[in-house]
């Protein structure tokens, strides 16, 4: 970029130089026009002044003293005229025969001397006014030009010549009002190119030949460029003065054109330099931003090559091309990341499917074991039920013996109570291990809660978990008793395991039953750590569990969801006021007038102690999965 900027400066400099030289020529042309115009104006001023002298001479030649050649009276008159006309060197009257007459300048100690100047003889010969060439004043001894006029006597015959000498050294004062640049010069020259008057250093240059070739003033060029006698090159404007004939030249120094162009040239150069520097700065700035953007993309490419597929942050780009490149790069990184994530998800799904397959295989084995255990429990329940019936029958007979003491009767009542309790436990275990849940019927959820409490109270007591029951509803629901018992038991086991996982020495589980409009709601609350927010949406998904392998299958809640959903109910989770978990389900309350109310509930179907365990279903409907 620097080299390009430097190369750009060269044509700019050439352009500035060319523009400056052209401007100099244009200014020089303007100087020519100005010099020509001023020359015409100055010639007009000089002609106007000479016309004034002609008027003065016209008055003087009619003066009685001049016409009578009263020389003694003309001296005072001429002296007065010289005082009033500072550009006049002398006013002199000469007799026609050549005798010296009065003058405006005091006479020399030798008195008047006879003299016959060339202009006097010319006037006497021609009888009209003439203009002398460059000469020296007879008394002043200074260079002058004499305007000579004939003086007629009383008889109208030429008797003398009136000569008015112009002070050439002060003639430039005529042009003082003309504005000219410093160093300009106004020169009056005759036909022989001899300087007659000059505005600069007249004493030095009057009488100097400025050109070896004589030039007729009427044929002189209007403008020219000439080096003056003082060595300064000037642009001259020329105008002819017919009175001489003379050539009036106005010279303006040629360097004035350069001086006039120089500020413009420097300004153009400054603007060009500023433009180049600004362009260079902008180019460097853009190059820096471009390099920065490319560095960002290069770093992002290296990061992607190292395995980090995070798309680079979108940043402002100096141009559209880089912006499109950045967008394409971001899109590429995003697509790569999505592809990798898709592959990771696919691999993870395959891993989960493999684990699920293994879990299902273990589940099948476990189901077979549970089925075998169910058959074994049914047989054991049948075998234990008969002795318990005998014990209960014996205790009832003993209660009718009158000879027993009160203490013995109390012991018999205690044995009867414990035997009844054992019978109920065996009956619940037999029912829960049954492989067929049976048809739906009207179920009192209070009975479900009671049997679940009997099944889990011993484990809860050993784990120091207090169980509370608040049954506030007596409405029945239409469902299968065993399946509702399975769902409730699953909730209670999950609550117990959640409390145990927190490492607390004691815990609390509350089972509540109450009405919610036309539905009956059962809740199981615990004061464990609860469920993580990110795990809540996945609670009822199959095979989802946070427990170690072998301690949970992830099927308990999903099976419970299917059971409740099959009866038109709803199941869910929320955090309770103890910061623990609350699992609940709601079922529509049954209409007491429904014809299905004639079918007894499962709890009612097994209240006969003598009923055989082989009469109960032997296949377990589903497994209870601990809560995650």
Characterize the structure shown.
This protein is α+β, with helices and mostly antiparallel strands. Among the domains are: 61-170, Beta-Lactamase, CATH 3.30.450.20; 437-615, Heat Shock Protein 90, CATH 3.30.565. 48% of the residues lie in helices and 18% in strands. The chain has helices at 2-60, 64-67, 71-84, 118-126, 202-205, 255-305, 320-399, 406-432, 445-462, 481-501, 556-566, 602-605; strands at 88-95, 100-103, 130-131, 135-136, 143-152, 158-167, 185-189, 195-198, 223-227, 233-241, 246-253, 441-444, 465-471, 476-479, 507-516, 519-526, 570-575, 581-588. The strands form four sheets. Strands 1, 2, 3, 4, 5 and 6 form a six-stranded antiparallel β-sheet that branches. The longest helix has 80 residues, at 320-399.
- On the 0 to 100 scale, the average pLDDT is 80
Shape: rod-shaped
Q: What is the H/E string?
A: HHHEEHEEEEEEHEEEHHHEHEEHEEHEEH
Structural class: alpha+beta
CATH fold category name of the domain at 437-615 = Heat Shock Protein 90
Brief write-up:
With 628 residues, the chain is of the alpha+beta class.
List the helices and strands and how they pair.
Blueprint: H1 2-60, H2 64-67, H3 71-84, E1 88-95, E2 100-103, H4 118-126, E3 130-131, E4 135-136, E5 143-152, E6 158-167, E7 185-189, E8 195-198, H5 202-205, E9 223-227, E10 233-241, E11 246-253, H6 255-305, H7 320-399, H8 406-432, E12 441-444, H9 445-462, E13 465-471, E14 476-479, H10 481-501, E15 507-516, E16 519-526, H11 556-566, E17 570-575, E18 581-588, H12 602-605
Parallel strand pairs: 13-15
Antiparallel strand pairs: 1-2, 1-6, 3-5, 4-5, 5-6, 7-8, 7-11, 9-10, 10-11, 12-14, 15-16, 16-18, 17-18
